[in-house]
């Protein structure tokens, strides 16, 4: 894929960008050391020759052919994995300040596994430290980056093994220490379908399990341990058992799960038997779970709370609808539209433009809704880019016109709704290594990230502008496109 298409101009305003995506990672490659089963790596350097844009799901990859990318398209790109794949994760708010941009970064997150045996599952509480740039991003002249060989490191005690870890590879800059994964593991007796951290208390985690149960667990003490841990321990920490603060068993397993950003502790959960519930925190502790909210005719797939109104909630489902609820009324939804021509898998409510909602469907399309005209059933934008079901969509917490989506086509796309195509700028940027933009690509498509298999979920970091995390069948990526 080509180098970045557009950068911010003076005063933070964006220039118009070409239509083609900005960059893509290399095709899935083995991690340093060979197996790639666990570890963290910094991707290899670019191949020689003129850049060419590769379009996921359109352009074939010949047998034995491997995609490559321009590392200047990323400010950073890190890979890591746990012992088992994770369908869901969350990037946690921390006390390190915001917004922050200087490398190296420290990131806290939680993830839930889908292990081969039920009792092998866990919720991983992670601190990823010393996340540098490696060879990614443009460097100032005289910065001393050696374009030749660089140091490499072997997996050290406490980093790899059964819990996964991070590897230093030959792509790492000599001047940077290797990244480190600090972790604590909370034993679980079932696979985790989805989990979310409470915005007001990041250590409180809600998790949807494949045994029909939703649990709320307080991992605050584990996060505090990780925050204080400067060096990796000599021995791997043992799994711990934490009794949940609350739990509720649905009629069927599910995926829909979301905390209210307005009312601390208020939670919504939806299952595959079309049942939607709201959890209310109680004085003195515990939660009261409501009766069923009636409206969806089939599985409830996702929920999203209003960023400003405490009792307003959106949901979507296999019945192809997106619905808006007032939690004080369980008998019916306030508004409903037939949102897609297939199952609606995911939704996201913009925190910066609070009348904007995004939805993603099984047909690979993403639609943008203006809630001020929602009852009329008209979407304001429709993008049919992904060549597989849309698996995640999320608005940027820093740019009001920007959001990201991922799909079963193994790609993650960053969109900027404010962009228009500018052929003159495309021509001006061509000497920087940009490839020719394909006409069929949307003007709003700002960046495409590939190289992961079966991407399930993405999140923006709330305190590091432009940093995106994603989970897939072959592990996690953390990256920042250089044109955001």
TrEMBL record:
Domain Histone-binding protein RBBP4-like N-terminal, chain residue ranges per copy: 65-129
Pfam families the record matches: CAF1C_H4-bd (PF12265), WD40 (PF00400)
WD repeat coordinates: 293-335, 337-372, 383-417
Sorted UniProt keywords: Nucleus, Repeat, WD repeat
InterPro entries named in the record: Glutamate-rich_WD_repeat, Histone-bd_RBBP4-like_N, WD40/YVTN_repeat-like_dom_sf, WD40_PAC1, WD40_repeat_CS, WD40_repeat_dom_sf, WD40_rpt
Any GO BP: ribosome biogenesis
GO cellular component terms listed in the entry, alphabetical order: nucleolus
Gene3D superfamilies, per the entry: YVTN repeat-like/Quinoprotein amine dehydrogenase
Subcellular location: Nucleus
UniProt region (Disordered), positions on chain: 35-58, 135-196
Family to which this protein belongs: Belongs to the WD repeat RBAP46/RBAP48/MSI1 family.
Name listed for the protein in its UniProt record: Glutamate-rich WD repeat-containing protein 1
Organism: Raphidocelis subcapitata
Taxonomic placement: Eukaryota, Viridiplantae, Chlorophyta, core chlorophytes, Chlorophyceae
């Amino acid at each position: 894929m080509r180098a970045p298409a557009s950068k911010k101009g003076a005063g933070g305003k964006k220039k118009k960008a070409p239509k083609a995506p900005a960059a893509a990672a290399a095709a899935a490659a083995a991690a340093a050391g060979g197996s790639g089963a666990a570890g963290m790596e910094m991707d290899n350097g670019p191949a020689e020759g003129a850049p060419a844009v590769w379009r996921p799901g359109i352009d074939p990859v010949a047998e034995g052919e491997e995609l490559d990318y321009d590392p200047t398209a990323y400010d950073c790109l890190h890979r890591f994995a746990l012992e088992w794949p994770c369908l869901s994760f969350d990037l946690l708010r921390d006390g390190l300040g915001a917004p922050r941009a200087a490398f190296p970064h420290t990131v806290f997150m939680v993830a839930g596994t889908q292990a081969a045996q039920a009792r092998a599952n866990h919720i991983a509480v992670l601190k990823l430290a010393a996340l540098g740039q490696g060879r990614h991003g443009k460097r100032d002249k005289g910065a001393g980056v050696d374009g030749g060989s660089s140091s490499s490191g072997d997996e050290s005690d406490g980093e790899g093994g059964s819990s996964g870890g991070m590897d230093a590879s030959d792509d790492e800059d000599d001047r940077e220490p290797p990244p480190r994964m600090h972790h604590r593991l909370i034993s679980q007796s079932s696979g985790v379908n989805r989990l979310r951290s409470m915005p007001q208390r990041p250590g409180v985690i809600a998790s949807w399990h494949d045994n029909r149960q939703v649990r709320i667990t307080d991992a605050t003490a584990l996060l505090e341990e990780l925050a204080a841990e400067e060096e990796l321990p000599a021995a791997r920490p043992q799994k711990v058992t934490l009794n949940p603060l609350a739990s509720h068993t649905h009629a069927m397993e599910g995926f829909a799960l979301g905390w209210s950003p307005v009312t601390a502790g208020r939670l919504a959960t939806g299952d595959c038997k079309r049942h939607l519930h709201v959890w209310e925190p109680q004085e003195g502790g515990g939660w009261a779970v409501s009766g069923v909210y009636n409206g969806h005719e089939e599985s409830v797939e996702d929920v999203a709370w209003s960023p400003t109104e405490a009792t307003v909630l959106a949901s979507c489902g296999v019945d192809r609808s997106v619905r808006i609820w007032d939690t004080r009324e369980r008998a019916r939804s306030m508004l409903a539209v037939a949102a897609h021509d297939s199952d609606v898998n995911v939704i996201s409510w913009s925190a910066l433009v609070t009348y904007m909602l995004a939805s993603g469907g099984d047909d690979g399309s993403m639609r943008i809704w203006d809630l001020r005209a929602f009852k009329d059933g008209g979407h304001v934008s429709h993008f049919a880019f992904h060549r597989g079901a849309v698996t995640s969509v999320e608005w940027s917490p820093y740019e009001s016109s920007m959001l990201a989506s991922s799909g079963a086509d193994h790609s993650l796309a960053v969109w900027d709704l404010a962009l228009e195509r500018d052929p003159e700028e495309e021509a001006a940027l061509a000497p920087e290594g940009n490839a020719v933009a394909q006409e069929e690509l949307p003007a709003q498509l700002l960046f495409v990230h590939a190289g992961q298999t079966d991407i399930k979920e993405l999140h923006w970091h709330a305190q590091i502008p432009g940093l995106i995390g994603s989970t897939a069948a072959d592990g996690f990526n953390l990256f920042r496109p250089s044109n955001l």
